[in-house]
Amino acid sequence: MPGPTETRVTKISKLKDMKISGESCLVMIAGPFLGKKYPLIDEDEFTVGRDEKNFIVCDMDNVSRRHAQVVHRGGKFFVRDLGSTNGTYLNDEEIREEQPLRSGDLVKIGSAIFKFLSGGNIEQQYYEEIYTLTICDGLTTIFNKRYFLEFIEREMGRCHRYNRALSLMMVDIDHFKSINDTNGHLAGDYVLRELAAVIKPRVRKEECFARYGGEEFAYVMPESGGENTRKLAEKIRRLVEDHRFTFEGKDIKVTLSIGVADLVGDMTEPLQFIKLADANLYKAKKAGRNRVVG
């Protein structure tokens, strides 16, 4: 039976002189309702949580019944945590006290991530965000599997046509399940985001670095092959091994296993190419992890 402490959304009286410049909304960019827009209108307090009475319902096991609240005051929006078990994060920083929201800010609640949009032409902003979601992974903000598959198919055709080199890395985080089990899923999400942030600046504009699924990533390198690719893979492996991953004051050891493959003449389908790199990734895992094979 519902108890007296169960979250309820309370509509408070409007202030006559309170005006919003343009429209505002939250867009779910990671979570169960990817791309859903929640307009912040008609009320001045918007709660987010697992209970069905919240303005935004996130029925996820790492979201509290009454998790966070967005408040409209003085023409601005603010976000605050409501004593949740796992905390509320604004742009990857845990909220300790009420914080103002600016257009483009990311709010993380459990495993759900919302993007705050505000100001003029919000519909255009929203549809731009939806397009981004079709090609990018919401958690890591790098390309997603769909874009990767389209990219590699296009590049395979081009490289066959002009007899040019093409290499592929399949990258996997070692013992990722243990990271989640030991430190919690929020720490696991942090590792995925931080790993992408460490590698992304090394990716050239003609290359594709994408989240393939779970803790596995793919890196496609046109005009590259042989020893150059192996050197880059080893550089990335060392870079991640030496990087300090710290979540809520606790260091997390992160290493990678990498499988590398080069495009050969009889490969006509992306799946053939991916399978070869994946087979080398499996060999790296079997050989003890934290190494490059291929």
Give your account of this protein's structure.
- Helices cover 30% and strands 29% of the residues.
- It contains six helices and 18 strands.
- A six-stranded antiparallel beta sheet has the order 2-1-11-10-7-8, covered by helices on one side. Strands 4-3-5-6-9 form a five-stranded mixed beta sheet, with no helix packed on it.
- A hairpin with a 2-residue loop joins strand 10 and strand 11 (112-119).
- The protein is globular.
- Mean pLDDT is 90; it is low at 7-21.
Break the fold down into its secondary structure elements and pairings.
Elements: E1 23-30, E2 37-39, E3 45-49, E4 56-57, E5 68-73, E6 76-81, E7 88-90, E8 93-94, E9 99-100, E10 106-109, E11 112-119, H1 122-135, H2 145-162, E12 166-173, H3 176-183, H4 185-199, E13 208-213, E14 216-222, H5 227-242, E15 245-247, E16 250-252, E17 256-262, H6 270-286, E18 292-293
Parallel strand pairs: 3-4, 17-18
Antiparallel strand pairs: 1-2, 1-11, 3-5, 5-6, 6-9, 7-8, 7-10, 10-11, 12-14, 12-17, 13-14, 15-16
Helix pairs in contact: 3-4
Summarize model confidence as the mean pLDDT. 90
Q: Number of helical segments? A: 6
- Major sheet summary line: 6 strands, antiparallel
Percent of residues in beta strands?
25-35%
Task: Report the oligomer.
Answer: single chain
Series of secondary-structure elements, N-terminal to C-terminal: EEEEEEEEEEEHHEHHEEHEEEHE
Indicate the structural class. alpha+beta
Instruction: Give the fraction of residues assigned to helices.
Output: 25-40%
- Side-by-side strand order of the widest sheet: 2-1-11-10-7-8
Measured between the Cα atoms of the first and last residue, the distance is 59 Å
Q: Spans with pLDDT under 50 lasting ≥5 residues?
A: 7-21
C-alpha-based Rg, rounded: 22 Å
Give the tally of β-strands: 18
The outline comes out as: globular
